[in-house]
Design a protein that fits this description.
By secondary structure, the protein is mostly helical. Helices cover about 75% and strands about 0% of the residues. It has one domain.
């Protein structure tokens, strides 16, 4: 397994696999099988894949530790960027362009008055700086703050789950499933953080006595 993951073909293969949802949408659009409301179908599909890629990205670290496969870290950046790619299709292309035709007055009314759009917009805003700073160059520029910044993905994933839950109204099985997966991933991280040994403080030398 390790040899396969380290192969030079592993990343190109994963890249193509991550594009399958887009190819599927394009094919259905070409075949005219997007249903009676194509915009709604595309919106839901891209939204679903955004949450799926967020959960897959958050699963990399636990799987790396549980399976003793540090090589899995090679794929975390790509998976995270695909999460942003699908949320970009979901929000910018489908919602802002196809649905609202960049009517920013109407868009702002939606964001302010409809809670599920408010929290979804929050998730998108949180993911933008993470995508921009995902390169090695930005990691070097930001230094130690890079990891702190990229922990915002936890809040983005939580906002995505809430957005989905508030959207569906009746059949909440999928958002609850994603919420359960997110809870398990976060509980595992909390457990791992609690296991880290605390730095032992060195005793401070006693102040010199005044003569």
């Amino acid at each position: 397994m390790k040899r396969i993951l380290q192969s030079r073909w592993s990343k190109p293969v994963l890249f193509l696999l991550c594009l399958i949802p887009l190819f599927r949408l394009a094919w259905r659009a070409y075949a005219g099988t997007l249903g009676p409301n194509p915009i709604e179908f595309i919106t839901h599909s891209t939204g679903d894949w955004t949450i799926r890629f967020l959960m897959i990205t958050l699963s990399v670290t636990p799987l790396r530790l549980l399976l003793h496969q540090p090589v899995l870290l090679r794929f975390r950046r790509m998976l995270g960027l695909f999460a942003f790619f699908y949320v970009f299709l979901h929000f910018v292309i489908t919602y802002l362009w196809f649905d609202k035709f960049f009517d920013f007055h109407e868009i702002m009314k939606d964001i302010v008055k409809r809670p599920f759009i408010t929290v979804g917009f929050t998730a998108f805003v949180l993911l933008v700086p993470l995508a921009i700073t995902s390169t090695d160059g930005w990691q070097r520029r930001i230094g130690k703050r890079w990891q702190t910044l990229h922990r915002a993905v936890y809040f983005a994933a939580l906002a995505g789950v809430i957005h989905y839950y508030w959207l569906v109204k009746s059949d909440v099985r999928l958002p609850l499933l994603y919420g359960a997966i997110f809870a398990v991933l976060m509980l595992y991280r909390l457990w791992m953080w609690s296991q880290k040994p605390r730095a032992v403080r060195k005793p401070q030398p006693a102040p010199a006595a005044r003569v």
